[in-house]
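Recap for those who missed Tuesday's class. We walked through two folding examples back to back. For each one, the amino acid string is listed first and its predicted structure tokens come directly after. Nothing is annotated here on purpose, so try labeling regions yourself before you check the end of the notes.
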Amino acid sequence: MDGIAGKNRFGPLMAFISAASFGAYPIFAKLAYGFGVNVPTVLFLRFSGCVILLWTFLLFTKRYQAFPKEAVIRLLLVGALVYSAMSALNLLAVTMISASLASLLLCTYPIFVTVVTIIRKDEILTRDKGIALVLSFIGIALLLNVDLSQINAWGILCGIGASFAYTAYVVVGNIIQKDLEPVQSATLIMSGACITYTLNGLIAGSLSFAFSGYGWLAMAGMILCSTVFAVVLFWASIKVIGPAKASIIGTAEPLVSVILAVILFDEKMSLLQYLGSGLIIAGVLLIQRVRIGREPTMTARPD
């Protein structure tokens, strides 16, 4: 029991480090754009670089030999279709509604993940989990300082669609990856996404590598920190604490983004944003009270 409790303590930490790593993504992206890297090239380099590193690790450690064939195909499809759809829908939403509203809609995914896992009887809704979910969502709304001046029905539908796609990515990926190590799951999903973004860049003819060395440094940070570490730790945390709790802790992602922007780009935060930050932190801390051994367990269901 001590071993299980110990692993459970590391679960929230892994989820938070993953969220912080994802939170650095907009910073690396802003730096890369400033050094002349265009969006299709950023996406191509991000996922191709991640895939090269992960496959190199799997080949070196011989972990590739344990892949069940069905899981390989399914996780590749999750990356190529579901993860890519989330990204595309979020980008479309930003073209029709404010970036803050699009981000808020995407950040509703922990709610949907929690609902789906409860319906599937993979997890149960505890009081602490429910309160943490509410606190985190309200905190995100305040932190993002959501602009409601641009209300577009199609934009909102795309934003919610991105959230649904991310929910499917988490829930379906969790079902498929049960017999795999987190690094194996991450490798297959990112490989699928890499195929999609590579084809998109090649077909559109928009890939360009005529940018400065600083652009390559920004991309290296994005690949290592905001993709390899972030994705592997996210799936590792799901293995330990489940998709709902990992997703709720993941709401710390926009908080890290804002803090880094304040530090690096001298951006200012309002009183409401500070309040929102506090609510997110409270939600993250509260979810850690839900421990294995304290939370009633559900009987494992066959998939």
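Example two. Treat it independently of the first, because the proteins are unrelated.
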Amino acid sequence: MKRFIITLSVFLAAVLLLSGCGVNFSVGLNYSYDGTGYEKFEENKVKTFEGTVQKVDMDWIAGKISFVRGDTFSIVEKAVKGDYFPLYYKLEAGTLYIKWAEDGASSKLLNNRAKEITVTVTEEFGAVKLNNVSSRVDIDLYNADKIDIKTVSGGVGVKADTVKEVRFDGVSGGLDISAEITGAVDTNTVSGKITLTQKKDAAIQYKLNTVSGDVELRLPAGTAGYKAKISSVSGDFDSDFGQREYGDGSVSVDFNSVSADLKIAKAE
């Protein structure tokens, strides 16, 4: 039970972190960050970037976020609910920082607004850090060193050729990722569902913490093996491979839940 209390504390801390970054509004609060060096985005323009953009660090509140593959790195946004207001951005040492609105923008002005942003990435691009409230997120990348996402209620879908490291923190927003994952996976959710599809067998570690959001881990049918360590109050375990330990045990699965189930399936 101590582990579950710790896990819940992590979830609450993640929500507070989002609020502190200005990714949440309440009466009397403004959207705030250190706006030094940020530029105003031009409406109805596609902004392209010279040189190599290796990482995006984004705060977004409502609407839709899309990462798509292309030959030139660019961003474009549009209003999907309410009047348009511009994002602010800066490029620094290969990292593109994107903010939902101007530093100090009034929460009353931005309430009930939603925007859609599309980020076109190149093969050189390699990392996403995202703080999200309720936006739908769809990410399609060539390769990534790290994907680090915090979301409250917005669902997240990720496709990539390869990903070295995945970090996901969510409340009711879930994650569905399909990639050749070569490093570690660390997910923490309250009720969001997690679906992880491993495209190629690899001896990596999965740390899967959840309260009530079910987890499905899809491993290649020819996987060398895994070892599942499970701590749960009332959640169930099921596996297409038939047991908690299979083969050489080279894949480590550490699953902690209150009522959520874990399913280890054979990927199609």
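Answers for example two:
Residues 2-141 form one domain.
The chain has a mean pLDDT of 90.
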